[in-house]
Amino acid sequence: MTQKKIIPADNTWKEAAKSVLIMAFSADPWIRWWWPEPQVYLKNMTLFMNEYLSVSIPAKGTYVVEDGSGASVWFPPGFSIENEVLVPAILEIPESRKDHAFKMFKQFDQCHPKEDHWYLPWIGVDPIYHGQGLGSLMLKEVLRIADEEGKIAHLESSNPLNISLYKRHGFETIVRIQEGDSPPIHPMTREPK
Question: Which strands sit side by side in the sheet containing 70-75, from one edge to the other?
Fold first, then answer.
């Protein structure tokens, strides 16, 4: 099989990146704990992707597989999202889970590196292309840049199946976070190589 190329995304890729990430996270334990109903998931994940991509693409932090089968959304050092924009979606987390979710958000903030770093909020592959190494290819592309800049990379793994992938690329788990009936989340950091 010919290796697919990973390319930086501009605005012409926004819809493709958004679509593949919405598909990729449709069975994610943490995201679906937030929004278990399909219509609520689709509405709010669309809002999230629009907002994250509106920051990541101009910051040159969005990368896609050349055929649109995968995408990663990174925030380079100095970039972040205005969380206020996401409040309507966050408020649609089921009432019985909100307090737990907010406690977890605070813990995530405490785990973020204090120094400039590359942050990976979203990476995903169309489920029909799982197991082809596309996640690794996307990770390598930005980790190479982070290494050249001497910067830390950080993420929160919401799917236990992905932890071994991140470990293979040098990420180490900081802590395991779980509140109430939530799935566990693993903040992970990687030192530059």
Answer: 6-8, 62-65, 70-75, 117-125, 152-157, 186-190, 172-173
Mean pLDDT by 10 residues, the chain (193 residues): 86 97 96 97 97 97 97 96 88 96 94 96 96 94 96 95 95 96 97 95
Q: Which residues pair with 119 in a beta bridge?
A: 75, 154
Q: What is the DSSP letter of 13?
A: G
If you ran DSSP here, which 8-state letter would residue 176 be given?
-
Q: Which residues pair with 140 in a beta bridge?
A: none
Contacts of residue 21, defined as CB under 8 A and 6 or more positions apart, other chains included, come to 45, 49, 71, 73, 122, 124
CB-neighbour burial class of residue 193 (10 A; exposed 0-12, middle 13-18, buried 19+)? exposed
CA dihedral (127, 132, 137, 139) positive or negative: positive
The count of C-alpha atoms lying within 13 angstroms of the C-alpha of 21, restricted to the half-sphere facing its C-beta, is 28
In 3-state terms the chain splits into helix, strand, coil percentages (rounded to 5) of 50, 20, 35
- 192 sits in the region (left: phi over 0; alpha: psi -120 to 50; else beta) called beta
Q: For residue 146, what is the DSSP state?
A: H
pTM > 0.85: yes
